[in-house]
């Protein structure tokens, strides 16, 4: 049992496709939040949202540093989904694939926990993960910052050499590899960075590559 892997799964654009509906909704909600709470016009609010995301890796960090924004209030207000089940794009084969993976499975996301859990429920895979780690659990320090990974590992006493991180964002895997994890990039792009052990077009292909990940 001690040799079994610990799977660390990202959520958005890894376990499901967030690009068609989820991300546009969140972006609009964040822009509207900046309009209301910073008294900005739409274009100015949208530009600031993008600027903080590019500079800090998360709009929330910029708001906390420069405006004293309450992170809990921000996350609740910007991650409201009245019809989440209609917005989710995912493959129903996901549940079967996850069940066949040996070892422990944890969701490790920059998203707030309440949204991540709701998304897993819609996909019918909430029971396939022992824990959902959201940005609240990381002291609001998002990936790819190394503090997020260290907090995850230390709080749960995880050995990074047993961890396999599955992500759609290559930069997040760079930090994982630096800490000694194995890395899986879920992407249809042509480029495979040196710090990526395996690149897959779909997370559903993961089980076919077990031999390359687990000795």
Automatic annotation (TrEMBL):
NCBIfam families with a match to the protein in the record: HAD-SF-IA-v3, Pyr-5-nucltdase
Transmembrane intervals: none
Protein's recorded name: Pyrimidine 5'-nucleotidase
Species for this entry: Thauera sinica
InterPro entries found in the cross-reference section: HAD-like_sf (IPR036412), HAD-SF_hydro_IA (IPR006439), HAD_sf (IPR023214), Pyr-5-nucltdase (IPR010237)
Pfam families: Hydrolase
SUPFAM superfamilies in UniProt: HAD-like (SSF56784)
């Amino acid at each position: 049992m001690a040799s079994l892997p610990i799977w660390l799964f990202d959520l958005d654009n890894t376990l499901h496709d967030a690009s068609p509906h989820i991300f546009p909704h969140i972006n609009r909600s964040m822009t509207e939040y900046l309009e209301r709470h910073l008294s900005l016009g739409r274009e100015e609010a949208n530009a600031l949202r993008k600027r903080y995301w590019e500079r800090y890796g998360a709009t929330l960090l910029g708001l906390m540093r420069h405006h004293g924004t309450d992170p809990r209030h921000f996350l609740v207000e910007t991650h409201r989904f009245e019809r989440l089940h209609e917005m989710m794009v995912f493959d129903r084969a996901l549940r079967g694939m996850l069940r066949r993976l040996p070892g422990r499975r944890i969701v490790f996301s920059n998203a707030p926990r309440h949204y991540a859990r709701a998304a897993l429920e819609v996909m019918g895979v909430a029971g396939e993960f022992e824990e959902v780690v959201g940005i609240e659990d990381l002291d609001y320090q998002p990936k790819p910052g190394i503090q997020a990974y260290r907090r995850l590992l230390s709080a749960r006493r995880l050995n990074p050499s047993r961890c396999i991180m599955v992500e759609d964002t290559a930069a997040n895997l760079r930090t994982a590899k630096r800490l000694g994890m194995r890395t899986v990039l879920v992407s249809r792009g042509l480029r495979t960075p040196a710090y990526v052990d395996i690149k897959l077009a779909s997370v559903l292909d993961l089980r076919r590559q077990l031999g390359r990940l687990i000795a």
